[in-house]
Amino acid sequence: MERIEVPNAADEGTMLIAWLDWHRATVFAKAEGLAEDLAHRPLLASSPVMTVAGLVSHLYWVERGWFEHILLGGPDEQPWTEEDPDKDFRADGTPLAELLAAYERQCARNNEVARSLSLDTEAKVERSYGRVTLRWLLLHLIEETARHNGHIDILREMLDGVTGE
Fold this sequence. Notes:
There is one protein chain. The protein is mostly helical. The protein has one domain: Four Helix Bundle (Hemerythrin (Met), subunit A) (Up-down Bundle). Helix content is about 55%, strand content about 0%. The protein has five helices and no strands. It has helices spanning about 10-30, 35-40, 50-70, 95-115, 135-160. The model has no long low-confidence stretch (mean pLDDT about 95).
């Protein structure tokens, strides 16, 4: 997934998807060339599941959960449980390339869904704070992905010194 030029002017849906795609592509840019053993290496004693691979896994599950379950009303297949609320971060040795490929496929699917619906479409599954719209969901994913890009950026620099935009 490559970064695209975000248009300076477009309709709201196009802009939201473009910004989300830019942040999604940043995940790939930050993970590019990272050695497999480093992708799975935890650096934070307080969060042993916070690895580059774990963050990619988490972002996959976040995208899948919000679109497939919350928005479309499909089954809740999220891996986390009360006993292991961070299970979506556990990459368990899954190769980084495999995690990135699954994430890329889910993002492409989500873009198809997003482009087929109005931004005012309400999610099928209600949350404790009410029903969200596709607009809310896209904004939330922009925020979530951007925040975790910051984590990946810091981890990457700590792991092998690579920095970038």
